[in-house]
Amino acid sequence: MRNPFAARKSSPDSPEDTALTRRFEWRAGLSGFALVGERVWEALLWPFLVVAVFLILSLFDLWSVMPPLLHRGMLIAFGIALLVSLLPLIRFPMPTRAEALRRLERNAEIKHRPASSYEDRLDTTSRGDTAILWAAHRERLATLVAKLKPSWPVPRTDRKDPYAIRSALLLVLVVAALAAASSTGFADTQ
């Protein structure tokens, strides 16, 4: 399977560049997959909220106290809300290679964007002194690129849920599950 975050540039110049390029491509790929993980996690926030509210109502057995018409209306509303909450997963924006490289550079806290500079190539018709400068530049970049480490996904659900409703719903869901378990006698049989 081809790495969607791999470069589409020409091949490197030397065997050392080949090994460094392989490590660099691996890190860029991991950074891109971490971006995918972050975006999927953020997109799952709204389906989680809808399902959590539905489960809370079910575990507290609030459906039985509702009139039949309200019950049906609520079920239809939850179905529609779940479908609408899944739309961000359908319209999921795949991260680009540039975004994966920016994430690598941001997490390494290295100045001058070494990941983006690493993909630059020297013209084949360059003069001798230019080639010497280019070799020095590539050596400096090689040390900087070695410091680029991909990190685990860090989803920012706090931007879409600044009041942490997800946490409150999770706590209420745990309480509802415990209450439902104790009312059915499941806790007594253990």
List the main descriptive attributes of the protein structure presented here.
190 residues; mainly alpha; 9 helices; elongated
Please describe what this structure looks like.
The chain has helices at 15-43, 45-59, 68-85, 87-90, 97-108, 114-118, 128-146, 165-184, 186-189. It is elongated, with a radius of gyration of 26 Å. The longest helix is centred in the first third of the chain and has 29 residues, at 15-43. 66% of the residues lie in helices and 0% in strands. The protein is built from nine helices and no strands. The protein is an all-alpha fold and 190 residues long.
Instruction: Count all strands and give the number.
Output: 0
* Helix run count: 9
Radius of gyration: 26 Å
Q: SSE string, helix = H, strand = E? A: HHHHHHHHH
**Average pLDDT metric:** 82
Structural category is mainly alpha
What is the overall silhouette?
elongated
Low confidence ranges? none
Share of helical residues: 55-70%
Q: How can the largest sheet be summarized?
A: none
Measured by DSSP, the beta-strand proportion falls in under 5%
Tell me the distance between the termini.
Answer: 48 Å
Question: What is the element layout, followed by pairings?
Answer:
Elements: H1 15-43, H2 45-59, H3 68-85, H4 87-90, H5 97-108, H6 114-118, H7 128-146, H8 165-184, H9 186-189
